[in-house]
Amino acid sequence: MSSYLKHDEWNIIEEGFHPEKSRDSESLFSIGNGHMGQRANFEEKYSGNTLQGHYIAGIYYPDKTRVGWWKNGYPEYFAKVINAPSWIGIDIKIDGDHLDLATCKILDFNRTLNMKQSVIERSFTVEMPSGVQVRVKSTRFVSIVEHELGLIRYSIIPVNKSANLEILPYIDADVENEDSNYGEKFWEKTEGSCYHHEAYIATKTKKLDFHICTGMLFDIFAGGSKLSTKAHLVEEDLLLGNKVLFNATAGEEIVVYKYAAVVSSLDYPATNLMQIARKKLQDANEKGFQTILNDHIKEWARKWEHSDIVIEGDVAAQQGIRFNILQLNQTYTGKDARLNIGPKGFTGEKYGGSTYWDTEAYCLPFFMATAGEKVAKNLLIYRYNHLQKAIENAQKLGFTNGAALYPMVTMNGEECHNEWEITFEEIHRNGAIAYAVYSYIRSTGNEAYLADKGLEVLLGIARFWAQRVNYSETKKKYVMLGVTGPNEYENNSNNNWYTNTIATWCLDYTQRLWRL
């Protein structure tokens, strides 16, 4: 774990504010629930170095490929999980000045990611230009139980004297991907509604026609009592919210409870998203922040019961392995066979949130051992559902008769990676997918999966290997030329040991299963 963070068995802890590490912290303290994820951006305004990021699994954008020259089989696009409209915003003004950690005098700062609970907490004290000192504490999570909900408890206490507060909870659809190839924004607004203590923005992608609705509902409490203060509606084109003004006395705790819902056309009719989001928020508000948090904590306790690894005598190693386990479980829950595991999870834009061979090579064994047969099976079904696309990928390179080349990078089964040495030479990925079928059968004994789906995948991959080799008269053996091995650094190699071994194993295994 990074040296500016404190070693702890169950927490990632930043003591003191490190603005030079802001983007690192936003990634390391990120949260997710398999359906969506949120970088550890601040709720209040921050004018320092930041990468705003909220991501929804399964919703992506085919960003047109940017490449110097084209080669046979190059994909038209690189698929990217989109930075979706932000739901976390709570702008604060104190005596007319923005609460902004890039400009305020910071007296103390602590940020903690509780890995046992997948909850991020942040507390700090600042001195404003007016001389008032303010203590702030925020608690945020995305529910692992009700996966379309994100919740925030945001507390403000004027410490040394009274202060005039302006609180603006909002949702913001004016977002962009930093890795956009042509500086294009990927969303367009279709509808927006603003009510007392509520706001909703419906958006659609400019390509592929994904629709989402992002909604928020909030309450404000002062000294433990709910305020009925009239809210001023804020209705800008891409930002909707409510502004509340009042005076807070010294020592009085002001608490904002913000409920957010993100629903999409992956799961509901596009025409009903706003009504569905509003119903979910009303139900969540009725349950209350603490009830939803308690349910979330209980479900995470069940996950840790089956997936924890205990390392005694080395706190740094214990923290590191639990961080990896947390990220795997935050990224993928196995509830939806349409989804997969992005190499960076929901922590940022790197690798576009796409599916790589890492899933079968590294992740599937973890989920098979900790999450049960159904979760592992859904990862296999994901590849089965993409078999026809894998066959089409191989056809583009001249392979025939049902030979299948699974993509290096994908969202829908179509190859969208455009580096020749990786896309067309790093073909051992086919073997990892075949081996995943073998591992699943060996672990579960579920041979019915072979007859139903698994053998079709294995046959497609075996046909690819059979056509990819050629016979060497000199060696009197079959050879496989021009590949990149799994280390990715030795391109255009002949007879890479790993690739040859996984190919011959796959051919042998498939023949045995065919006879069976």
Structure description:
This protein has 516 residues and is an alpha+beta fold. The protein is 30% helix and 27% strand. The chain has eleven helices and 22 strands. It has helices at residues 22-28, 273-287, 289-307, 315-331, 358-370, 373-385, 387-395, 420-423, 428-444, 448-468, 497-515, and strands spanning 11-15, 31-32, 36-38, 54-56, 60-64, 77-81, 90-94, 97-98, 105-114, 119-127, 133-142, 149-158, 163-172, 187-195, 198-205, 211-222, 225-226, 232-235, 239-248, 254-264, 470-472, 477-479. Strands 1, 9, 10, 11, 12, 14, 15, 16, 17 and 20 form a ten-stranded antiparallel sheet that branches. Strands 8-7-13-19-18 form a five-stranded antiparallel sheet, with no helix packed on it. Strand 7 and strand 8 (97-98) form a beta hairpin. Helix 6 packs antiparallel against helix 9 and helix 9 (428-444) packs across helix 11.
Report a brief summary of the structure:
By secondary structure, the chain is α+β, with helices and mostly antiparallel strands.
Indicate the structural class: alpha+beta
Distance between the termini: 48 Å
Classify the beta-strand content into a percent band: 25-35%
Profile the largest sheet: 10 strands, antiparallel
Q: What keywords describe this structure?
A:
single chain, alpha+beta, ten-stranded antiparallel beta sheet, five-stranded antiparallel beta sheet, 27% strand
Topology:
Blueprint: E1 11-15, H1 22-28, E2 31-32, E3 36-38, E4 54-56, E5 60-64, E6 77-81, E7 90-94, E8 97-98, E9 105-114, E10 119-127, E11 133-142, E12 149-158, E13 163-172, E14 187-195, E15 198-205, E16 211-222, E17 225-226, E18 232-235, E19 239-248, E20 254-264, H2 273-287, H3 289-307, H4 315-331, H5 358-370, H6 373-385, H7 387-395, H8 420-423, H9 428-444, H10 448-468, E21 470-472, E22 477-479, H11 497-515
